[in-house]
Amino acid sequence: MEKTFPRSIKKAQHASYAKINLFLEVLGKLPENYHEIETLLCSVSLCDTLKYVLTKRPGIEIWSNLLGMAAKSNLVFKVAQYLLDKFQPNSGVDIHLEKRIPIAAGLGGGSSNAAVTLRTLNVLWDLKLSLDDLKHIAAQFGSDIPYFLHGGTAWGTHRGEVIEQRPDIQLQLLLVNPGIGISSAEAYALLPANTNRDRKRLDRTDGYDWLFNRLEPGIRQAYPVVDRLLNDLSNAGANAAIMSGSGSTCFGVFEDAAKMAACQRNFNRIGYWTQIVRTISRKEYESEFKA
Predict the structure, then answer these.
(1) pTM of whole model > 0.90?
(2) Whole-number Å distance between alpha carbons of 164 and 146
(3) Backbone phi and psi for residue 213, each to the nearest 5 degrees, phi listed first
(4) Which domains does the chain have, with CATH numbers?
(5) Residues 91-133 pLDDT 10s
(6) Which of 135, 147, 84 is nearest to 111 (CA)?
(7) Which residue is catalytic, options 19, 99, 135, 232?
(8) Is there a catalytic annotation at residue 19?
(9) Which among 99, 144, 209, 232 is annotated as catalytic?
(10) For residue 284, which of 31, 167, 258, 278 sits 20 to 30 Å off, Cα-Cα?
(11) Is residue 209 among the annotated active site residues?
């Protein structure tokens, strides 16, 4: 029987926030070549924008300001197509993706876009899926995606898909990307063989010594530009400097706004991408999805 489509057109627009890893330890290997990790994640104010319009014609169409982002390999398309195939809603959807988060940069932009798409289409298509249902779907497409269904500050374990909310952390940060993309596979391949022999545990103090990324030493050795970037952040007065996720984006924690602005200007002069951001609370993250 031929499908009928709704007369009224539904639409939505949401911010899709980036994340940083304040702590990342790699515990060892899991089956299917995954790594077991422990990580403390925080949402930050840098975001992409996603716009959705339900259509009377079936199917999914994606547009983006960035070349290649409208391809069927994009996580946004993949999760939307999964929902379309499995639940067969009586409308299609047009999606416009405005990218601001650097790609393959350790900021989770693609995973964030996918999570926002799952939440939004669940509402627009009236699928009535629970958050647990969405988590199960999200984990099939990427270890970071379940976190972005929550946002805020959270503790991630196993592959990173097991999420526990933690109290909000308020920080002012300078994000810096030197213009190179590093895949997660490459970052993990650069881990030293004895990674699980000196396990680091999260032990938060009043300072910033607890910030840690197990992937950072291997990347610093393989990519001197990242090593210099982190040294420059520290020398510019950052209270702490660390790589986010698998890189290549690094961030400096600054308590002095003037020093942070001066540091940003210096990186801008040499052509690096920079952004001053703040961390986002769970409440603020969740408010993005309120009607």
Answers:
(1) yes
(2) 11
(3) -140, 110
(4) 11-166 (3.30.230.10), 172-280 (3.30.70.890)
(5) 999 999 999 999 989 999 999 999 999 999 999 999 999 999 9
(6) 147
(7) 19
(8) yes
(9) 144
(10) 258
(11) no
